[in-house]
Amino acid sequence: MTMRRAAAALLGAVVVPALVACGTEPTRESTTEAPSDAPSFPEGTTRQSAENSGEWDLVLSDVRVGEHEGYTRVVLDFTGTGSPGWTVDYVDEAVLDGSGDVVRLGGDAILDIYASGTTWPADHYYSGPQRFEPEAGADVDEVYVAGTFEGYTQVLAGIDGDRVPFRVFALSDPPRLVVDVRDDG
Length: 185
Prior knowledge:
Number of helices: 1
Distance between the termini: 45 Å
Oligomer: single chain
CATH class: Mainly Beta
Helix content: 10-25%
Structural class: mainly beta
Number of strands: 12
Radius of gyration: 15 Å
Strand order of the largest sheet: 1-4-7-10-9-8
Mean pLDDT: 82
């Protein structure tokens, strides 16, 4: 077993029970509106990425999903001073970084969301549910918060229907990573 997989297994053994035991409301709605300079939706569904900026001190504090006119928004909220980078792409299977374990998610397509520039101090980390079905999720059937490993935070989103275009951007004050999934049809 590689050191990376061993660390992921240990992390999963500690974090998963803590997250599952949490009683936070799993269907929080995103109220963040897209800024006027938000990118437009691309025509295709290819991978999108950008580098983080500032210190690698972002700590995941919340994951929200909300329905908006024409799209569903997934927001990763962070504490810290940097700005998250990202790699977001559709994948054939929901595979957890580090362990390689496959997660079953509701939905027909899987969006793999990575935020970079993140860290994991146990006393400030996300305490919400690891898996939830958002009530205000429209085309997002289920979300799985995989956790933070080696500077990257992974969240998986099961999308109802075929792969559809998405846009990704960061917001500040507080730092957030926003993934908008265009409505199917």
